[in-house]
Amino acid sequence: MSYEYTGLRADTVNDMKSAANAEFVIVVAEDDPSVRNAVQRVLELEGYNVSVAPDGNAALDMIVSVKPHAVVMDVMMPFADGLTVTRELRHRGIRTPILLLTARHEVGDRVAGLDAGADDYLVKPFAVDELLARVRALLRRNESLTSPTLLSLDDLTLDTSKREVKRGENTLDLTKTEFDLLHILLEQQGIVLSRDYLYEHIWGFNFETNSKSLDVYIGYLRRKLDAIGTEKLLHTVRGVGYVMRKP
């Protein structure tokens, strides 16, 4: 399979590239040399510091030692696949934002990656602009992780520094995606957030308009919140989106 990255012009890259990007370290883990080199070059042209790994074991070691700001990682790699590496990083408490690359496009595969703890999922072949948009979203997410905040609504509290959510005295067991979804809804409680907005800010880019991923996670989150609390706090505004507020 060949990858043709179109639309990459030197003058455009130079215009977009910012000296501020030099402070960001990104690990690229990909066993296909052509894809790995292409992604590395694209990111370096944007001014990012890029470290590369050719397999899952090398990626895990590199991420632990380098402590990058974001990771772009293939799913299918030798020694340890991307899902295994992602689960191990989350098990160790490493919250570095992760973008998974894969040739599979089925929703089930995408959800499996997100459930493993990944932040976003990009199907090959992909356009340069989409890759860069998703990387920028990962870096924005990384900044939010470094700003501990205690958010609350009624008897619900979310502590970003501890990655902990409580309803009253009960601690809720949330996945990475459920936590991030609740975080953004609580940050803007009382404001109806559109589906497009949530897709962009949770998954880093707009999925296809008929995607059901958001509905699935809203359902998971609502069941966990309603199982403990007496008041419904997560509401659907039909035709618009979702909002956190007291009834």
How is this fold's topology laid out?
Elements: H1 10-16, E1 25-29, H2 33-45, E2 49-53, H3 56-66, E3 70-74, H4 82-91, E4 98-102, H5 107-115, E5 120-123, H6 128-145, E6 150-153, E7 156-159, E8 164-167, E9 170-172, H7 176-187, E10 193-194, H8 195-203, H9 213-228, E11 234-237, E12 241-244
Parallel strand pairs: 1-2, 1-3, 3-4, 4-5
Antiparallel strand pairs: 6-7, 7-8, 8-9, 10-12, 11-12
Helix pairs in contact: 3-4, 7-9
> Strand fraction band?
15-25%
Indicate the mean pLDDT: 83
CATH H-level homologous superfamily name of the largest domain: Response regulator
What's the shape? elongated
Query: What pattern of helices and strands is seen along the backbone?
Result: HEHEHEHEHEHEEEEHEHHEE
Q: Give unreliable regions as ranges.
A: 1-16
Number of helices: 9
The span between the termini is: 53 Å
Q: Name the helicity range.
A: 40-55%
- Second rung of CATH, namely the architecture of the largest domain: 3-Layer(aba) Sandwich
Judged by helices, strands and strand pairing, the structural class is alpha/beta
CATH C-level of the largest domain: Alpha Beta
- Sheet with most strands: 5 strands, parallel
- Provide the spatial order of strands within the biggest beta sheet: 2-1-3-4-5
CATH topology of the largest domain: Rossmann fold
Radius of gyration: 18 Å
How many separate structural domains?
2
Describe the protein in words.
This protein is an alpha/beta fold and 247 residues long. It has two domains: 10-145, 3-Layer(aba) Sandwich (Rossmann fold); 150-244, Winged helix-like DNA-binding domain superfamily/Winged helix DNA-binding domain (Arc Repressor Mutant, subunit A). It is 43% helix and 20% strand. The protein contains nine helices and twelve strands. The protein has helices at 10-16, 33-45, 56-66, 82-91, 107-115, 128-145, 176-187, 195-203, 213-228, and strands at 25-29, 49-53, 70-74, 98-102, 120-123, 150-153, 156-159, 164-167, 170-172, 193-194, 234-237, 241-244. A five-stranded parallel β-sheet has the order 2-1-3-4-5, sandwiched between helices. A four-stranded antiparallel β-sheet has the order 6-7-8-9, with helices on one face. Helix 3 runs parallel beside helix 4 (82-91). The chain is elongated, with a radius of gyration of 18 Å.
